[in-house]
What does this fold into?
Amino acid sequence: MILCLDLSYRPGSLALEEFAYPVAAIVRKAGEEAKIVHYTGVGTGLPPGTDAVILCGTALKDTRYLGRPELFCWLPEAPVPVLGICAGMQVISTVHGGETEAGCEIGMTDIEVVRPDPLFAGKDCFQAYELHTLACTPPPGFWALAVSGTCVQAIRHRKKAVYGIMFHPEVRNEWLVERFLGMGRSL
Amino acid sequence: MKLGVLCSGGKDSIYAAYRAMQKEEVACFISVVSRNEESYMFHTPNVPLVALQAEAAGLPLVCVETAGEKEKELQDLRDALECARERYGIEGVVSGAILSVYQASRLQQICRDMDLWCFNPLWYTDQEGYMASLVREGFSIIITGVFSEPFDESWLGRRIDGLMIAQLKAIAERYRITLTGEGGEFETFALDAPFFERRIAVRKASAKYKNFRGVYMIEEAELEER
It folds into this structure.
């Protein structure tokens, strides 16, 4: 089961359909079970049967998730692959000691891959949909994998399949989620 | 949270309003009427009838007119949102965007500039499931414009039902268009919705059609009890 974490301002919010449903749809289309859970409902450990976690994005004005880092205490020890999308990347960075700063991109943006990784194999540069007002630096123990003209676009933990991406792959880059799921299967 | 729904009169904005009402408070409809039939941002047939939809929903309407020039109409949209904020205290905007990165990113940018929330509850939705839910949940939607092959004149004024969805599905697969008409292949107008207090009855309409392009103009309409 792929746990799709809704990072929106409250459980069942109006942003749920916009940011979690499209990601869950890609997961299901790839033949995996997707379970959407609000981040406040995870507790100290992941639900039994979790094969991977995807932290989904939020509305542009929503940064409430950054105010409750203790709710992500499970993240550093997560025994499964993790992919953080936009807000999810900010959470991964923050929980691992990175910092967020102002950095706004809206709309299709050029992404340049700067470090080889299976997630971006064969993709030197591509366009992706951005929707963020905050950017983050790679925390200690992470590599920067891709950048745009504004900020770091992808990070990866040096020892684990824990990824953060700033763009929204559910828009025109579904391949990235599919690859992430494939990596989880092969581990 | 008080929200204004950007409403063109078509199925997507009316359904987005319905979803928004289930989660937040919808304070008003916002309509931008374009004088340009090829508007980049705003769907045009029958947009003036959004006033009747707002009345049916018991909601106020903020309506601005635009010449429909590419970037000027974005300023007109900003003016409309500012007006909605001043009059009705909206804190955010809802749109019915499904796949249009052009529309969504421009609206997101405007909302960012104006410090407003922006919601697109149909964004990248399962289109077949969405179309089925329109019928299942009691929306009455008619086709008010066709702009591509293979739609003939018989489509104009037709109500979306299960049979039409099956036909659209076959057309979408064969002609590589979206099931929801997101690419502008057809336009719609909502005559009734679960949150309408009364429904819209079309009293007089006319159709113009030529070479896979046609519009169904509602000339006279009024509210009636269900």
User: Anything to note?
Assistant: Chain B has two domains: 2-119, 127-224.
